[in-house]
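Recall the central idea of this unit: under ordinary conditions, the amino acid sequence of a chain determines the structure it adopts. In this exercise we apply that idea directly, starting from the sequence alone.
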Amino acid sequence: MLPTNKTTTRVTEKRGGINTAYVQYVGLFLITLTVLIASHQTFGNVLAGANLEVLAMNMVFEGIMALGMTFVIISGGIDLSVAAVFAFAEILVAKLMIEAGVPVAAAIIITLGACGIIGALNGLMIVAFRVHPIIITMGTLLTLRGVNLAITDGRSISGFSNDFLFLGTGKILGMNFPIVFFIVAALVLGVLLAHHSFFRQVYVIGGGERPARLSGINVNRVKIVIYTLCAVLAGAAGIMAAARYGAAHWGHGNLAELKAIAAVAVGGANINGGSGTIGGTVLGTVFLAVVHNAFVTSTVNPFLYDVVNGVMLLIAVLLSRFIQRQNEHAQQRTRQAKMDQLATSTEEKSE
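Accordingly, the structure predicted from this sequence is:
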């Protein structure tokens, strides 16, 4: 059972202070819409169907990784290994299918299982050794990157079957399969995070591990599950990317972990944990994709996009911290007012 006292930022936002979710979601939506319309008016064809499809495909793989990252960040953690897991999934599914002759379905299941094990090990090491997630997941990142490079000798692996390529290029209801997967995954995970008692515990953990443990939450189990989920989603994105590109390469997904973190932070999640939503992450992902599209269609140096990404991440983190402090001050004022009222009432009774 979730405690009713002050345990998460998400709860306190509704009781006083600045409504973080409302301000950031509406503001981000309006900015996204403005950038999209301005790009269309300036460069033309931005809102054309073909360009929108390209825009969606440019963000979908990082978006899928960001969905899993949302759970991790809300819990107060972070996972820097998702990009390496992404590339590992590409390589493993290619090795299994092309070199070992494993059927498509079996290769996908084995690959997702392997990614899940990597995520579970991340979570297990974090809770067992009480080491900050940055250190553990950075170690996993470096280890997997070395493994990916070693088993491929730095070369691409290609030769997938048409059945497998459907996962990257096939369409359902007129949309590319990865986009459909992203939408369905976002809807399912959004419902689970908002309404399922197990996943709602990540808010309590992000608000403070000690109160979470005192309230009876199995913090270790929840952490292992969410790091496993994060890795599985990164693996799923890697599998679809291999199908999309028609090849697996150890360098695919480079810096994707930072883009996923940026999408979650820009989408309104508190980077320190305790607040965030899947809807916000989706909106953050779309915003970054729209900005990237604006750079591509303009004459601006496209390499500046990474600069903008970094600046937006910094702004999102600083804004989140500012709002958190405002909420804390508002709660302190509320508590002080109640104490003053109680003191006044006591004095009146004594008289």
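The chain has one domain: 9-343.
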